[in-house]
Amino acid sequence: MGRLGEFIGFRLRRVQNLLSKDFASATRKYNLRSGLFSSLSLISSNPGISQNELSAAVGLDKSTFVQVIDELEKRGLAKREKSKTDRRRHALFVTDEGQIFLNELYEIMAKTESAALKQLSPSELSLLKALLDRMYEVL
């Protein structure tokens, strides 16, 4: 890897690329667009989240992100409702069908990550998660 191997971003990206490739292959039949799975997951974890909050959390541009929400609604996976506290914003919720779909995607993701995660002990995995979270918070 030469000097490139000295950079954590490069090492993280190598692993992420392989995990993403495996997940994309395993979910090809669902025709997932970028941001759909993570958006649905975050809506499920934060019922009533606004589109602006969600686009910031996912890291997608607001104008692009509307298309993700439109697709989630079109597929019957999520719904927009007028906020009860602020008429200018929409609150997002996962539908029952969306939760079933999300659970299926979680199972697929667990399978695609299992080979890599088997290389780590439970304490190493816990440490890795903590270190990555700490790095993320700084950035």
TrEMBL record:
Domain of life: Bacteria
Residue ranges annotated for the HTH marR-type domain, each copy included: 1-137
GO MF assignments: DNA binding; DNA-binding transcription factor activity
Key words of the record: DNA-binding, Transcription, Transcription regulation
One Pfam family linked to the record: MarR_2
Annotated PANTHER family: TRANSCRIPTIONAL REGULATOR, MARR, TRANSCRIPTIONAL REPRESSOR OF EMRAB OPERON
Protein name: HTH marR-type domain-containing protein
Biological source species: Alteromonas confluentis
